[in-house]
Amino acid sequence: MEFDHFTVVLLLTPPDAPELDDEAADALQDAHLDHLATLHEGGKLLAAGPLPGSPGRGFRGLNLFGTGLDEARALAEQDPAVRAGQFELEVLPWVVPAGAMTFDRGARFPHSAAEAGS
pLDDT tens digits, residue range 11-66? Predict the structure, then answer.
């Protein structure tokens, strides 16, 4: 049997995340969304989204990369929200039977909260 290999990057809220005012938080969210959209357009990021209301360790979001662990970690570390200390990362390999997961390359990720309609 053949398998497809992906990398899951979980975004978590660190215990020492800096407090931001509304204007700074909005600007950082737009930069975060732009980063994800750019990675998706470049074919590295397959899927991403928030984990609303997640209990426990402060899970905030999940990114699914079509790259190896090291490249996925490096790309996720470039996220402005990670660099600003709003998220910390957990990077995990994920293996599924070949073809079990498909992704529409024509899907469009928003580059800002305004574009997302939120």
Answer: 999 988 999 999 999 999 999 999 999 999 999 999 999 998 765 668 999 999 99
Give the closest residue to 87 by CA, choosing from 44, 40, 38, 33: 33
Cα–Cα nearest to 11, from 65, 66, 99 = 65
Which domains are present in the chain?
Answer: 3-95 (3.30.70.1060)
* Chain length of the chain: 118
How confident is the model over 89-108, as pLDDT tens digits? 999 999 999 999 999 888 99
Can you say whether the dihedral through the CA atoms of 80, 33, 72, 40 is positive or negative? negative
Whether residue 28 contacts residue 86, with contact meaning beta carbons closer than 8 Å, is answered with: yes
On whether the CB atoms of residues 63 and 8 are closer than 8 A, the answer is yes
Q: What is the dihedral of CA 40, 63, 2, 103, to 10 degrees?
A: -40
